[in-house]
Amino acid sequence: xxxxxxxxxxxxxxxxxxxxxxxxxxxxxxxxxxxxxxxxxxxxxxxxxxxxxxxxxxxxxxxxxxxxxxxxxxxxxxxxxxxxxxxxxxxxxxxxxxxxxxxxxxxxxxxxxxxxxxxxxxxxxxxxxxxxxxxxxxxxxxxxxxxxxxxxxxxxxxxxxxxxxxxxxxxxxxxxxxxxxxxxxxxxxxxxxxxxxxxxxxxxxxxxxxxxxxxxxxxxxxxxxxxxxxxxxxxxxxxxxxxxxxxxxxxxxxxxxxxxxxxxxxxxxxxxxxxxxxx
Length: 279
What we know:
It is built from eleven helices and seven strands. The chain is an alpha/beta fold. The strands form two sheets. The chain has a four-stranded parallel β-sheet, with helices on both faces. The protein has a three-stranded mixed β-sheet with strand order 5-6-7, covered by helices on one side. Helix 1 (3-17) packs across helix 2. The two termini are 29 Å apart.
């Protein structure tokens, strides 16, 4: 099916839903979905964003700016992800526990706002990963219009660019809990360490990266083409000293470079599934 046909299918699907609450993170998938829903349904759309210490503050700010720029009604709901039973212990199904809690909040908000259903931004590329969070989406009856329309990540970026959305080439993101080795307790203080470290790298121009936490060691992933700049003496020294100030005892560069789901590699090595897909 050609991309124009998929886009038409998406719009028809949204029109049939009637009114929607969009689970809006601010990433390219949910931004494209939200703007398309607004184009089709107008005022029958509301964006709902979860605010929690597991999400970088910059993502919340950017989500608010997007809605203000496009005149979309936006509701921000405080969500205590660390209070979800079992989540802070960081088991391999952590994503399921968190996603279910957040989506239950989304359903409550949709009902309050008179929206017929909740929709979220999963696409066909996500089908290749084992993602416990998707099980929560299915269990609660949340709709995934981009997947229903057969749209891939690359196609979504292309269409978002054609729509003039600034988010079309926004780097992939994921909740900060995905920075922790499984079994290591997740706390607000340690989440803040990860967020500060990644914000430093962003401010220094490393757009696609992760700071993985192994105890008090930071394992930094950047794109291989950024290795030379990272290892520049002044850059390396600034990163090291700043992260030490944030509370890290050791700072390392992962020689394999940035990749999604690297925390799952230990599980796969022992015959387990890739617990959280891309993170």
